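Lecture notes, unit on protein representations.

Consider one protein chain, 259 amino acids long.
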Amino acid sequence: MADEKLYGIHPVLEALQEERRSISRIFVSRQRRDPSVQRLLGLAAQRSIPVVEVDRAQLQQLSGNGTHQGVVALVKPLPSPSWSEVLASLKTTLGPQTVLCLDNVTDVGNFAALIRSAAAFGVQTILLPRHEAVSVTATVAKRSAGALERMGIVRVGNLVQALEALKQDGFWVYGADTQGTTAVAQMDWPERLVLVLGAEGRGIRRLVRQYCDGFIRIPMHAAMNSLNVATAGAIILAYCWDCRTVSISAQTLHEERAR
């Protein structure tokens, strides 16, 4: 399998720390020796990964004129788990779980921002259709500030069948919709949640909507009728994370008082 180019301090650092994929070589600017690069060099040495000092022109060429921040790594693609492996893992995982399902989302910037929000708010799995969906690229890795390295991303041929399988395993499926019946602040979050987001404009496809148990809306000023999908996703995931954290803290306090 051919190497991919991964560039930027945070994406390369995350790849070194998470150790989910093989790194064959790292190219570093001769001009950079700040603490972040020193940390990167130390991690590379621990894993016996060759480091080559190069000039800026070579880094520009290696990164395809991307924002490389003085670092480019040659890496293997992230492992892509099968749908059966993901289902098996979700079945055996205890505690609150959130699966983020992206339907019709094709914009690289939105995808990267959603990956970062998902990582920040406890999501471990992102579900994508195999067709008409954004690809995982070096640009996505860079824009997600390395959060891509922590995320399990699985593609399925039939999104509806995947949602049905999740519902059979006890997940509740909720879509984000400006006309949703439940405001995000009033949502009673299920322990096992699938949050479905559709692209701005097209939204969630009709067949996928039919498998949703309900729809969540974000109240907003009357002059606005929608939000960017990445912004909407971040708001909903943050509410879910915060409510669950408060609930778990309250339950722990109750148990301690009962002892």
